[in-house]
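Re: duplicated header lines in exported structure tokens

Our pipeline writes sequence and tokens for each protein into one text file. With two proteins the header for the second block appears twice in some exports. Here is an export where it did not happen, for reference. First protein block:
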Amino acid sequence: MTGFVAAVLKAGYAGALSLEMFNDEFRAAPAGPTAMAARQSLLWLEERLQADAQLPSQAGLPLFQPPRAPALNGFTSLELAIPPVHRQAVEQLLGSLGLVEQGRHRRAPITRFAGQAFDVYLRETHDNAAVTVHSLGLTCAGSQALLMRLEDYGQATRGDDDLGGRLLTTPAALALRIGPDANLDGRFESGLHPAPSDCRLSGVAFALPIGLLESESGVWRHLLGLPAASTGVRHEPQGVVRRRCWQSTAGEVEIALETSTHAGTSVGRALSPSAGLTQRATCVALRLEVDDVVATAQRLKAAGLAVEPVPVNYYHDLAAHQALSERDRTLFQAHALRYERRGNRDYAFLQLTVPGNDHLMLEVGEYRAFEV
């Protein structure tokens, strides 16, 4: 579209540009998010006309010039809404991951667990029966520039009195926290500060109603500046799940959106309490990287937290296709570890459901070298 519109403008056209909708998902989606997505896509086109097509802004034909989207460097925080009945099990999980409790909030019912790379906040709630993701913290090279960009695009943010920074609410009702809070430590009671582990959050997947997929995609592509998404489908026994995934240039941030028209799929089951009613997304997967996945698996077992079992034939297949040593294959099977080759590196990981939410899968992994 950028090259085509640039040619039209260079030929002297100075009239209006309109949008015609052929997408059935947009036709079925709520009108408000669709209209906002349409406006933002036109503004983004103007921005790309200057960046990609080198089309200068002319007198009488001004082009939209927001601050450039800074590179997203990673996740700084994960905030979970915790019903009291699940609190102990979730705290055991965080301790097994090497995260260390750092104290309670002075005013809000929030407990802070710290790692070297990111923090987890447990917000006690009596509104939900299940553990849910309340907000995600993002870090970037210039948070102020990003906030100015959001404002220019007409995307409102709001301040957060509890944890600081600015909160961006996406069309699917995801809460993204942008910008640091210089006084964050002062908001919490002082406690013990042992050295936490280097556990970090590297990927998140959300399930959302199909009508919000396009509007939600625009936030990550147009506003937050992630590269073009990869797409795919996953065939489950009860239907097909469509997946759209973005990854930052450095690979520190990966966001996946999943949707399905089949109520019996993993996405449909996760959305069943709210789909068609509140039109909200829900988090279905978190990916954490740790220092030592074997030691983590042992701590999880000691805490009584069961990981997802792996069928024995998986390891037979792994032995046939991967040049792993017998020692490593035995280690994998003993701790229910799975294996992938990601990029040029070996990746070992385990999976378990987050206590208090059978639809929220946690993947814990480590990049490491294996004997061949």
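Second protein block, exported in the same file:
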Amino acid sequence: MITLKGKQIYLRALEPEDLQFIHTIENDESIWEISNTQTPYSKYLIKQYLEHAHKDIYEVKQLRLVISSYDDEALGMIDIFDFDFKNRRAGIGILVKEEANRQKGFGKEALSLLINYCFTHLDLHQLYCNISEDNKASIQLFTGQGFKEIGLKKDWNYLNGKFKNEYLYQLIHK
């Protein structure tokens, strides 16, 4: 049985009711750096995205899940992207939306559940993530789950008039 349930949270598929939640996240300029977004998204575009979110990961090469509390509050999202079945690897991204919900173990539990899903059910060999050099919370989260820093991409992202470095982290399943 596939289990995406933890002690505090569970991971679930996107639903049409998530339209406003996703719209708020995608249009929050403070997180555009981590999502490589430069422009706002309309509700119309997000609705279209939600209508196709059911498609198979092998077809669309990504999977976005909602991090949900057991009282059904959407806390954030966790993504598998650049899914490459041939080479058995994928990228992972995570966001806990409200600052008040961070540092409570929700992200750690979500990441742990997704890692297990990727290695057990998708039969992946490795996962990776890209983290800005000043995102200490994400560095701590991913290294705490066994990800190792394998590279530094110098001057990788341009933000607010200056370039920022980005680390590449990797977790290889043994």
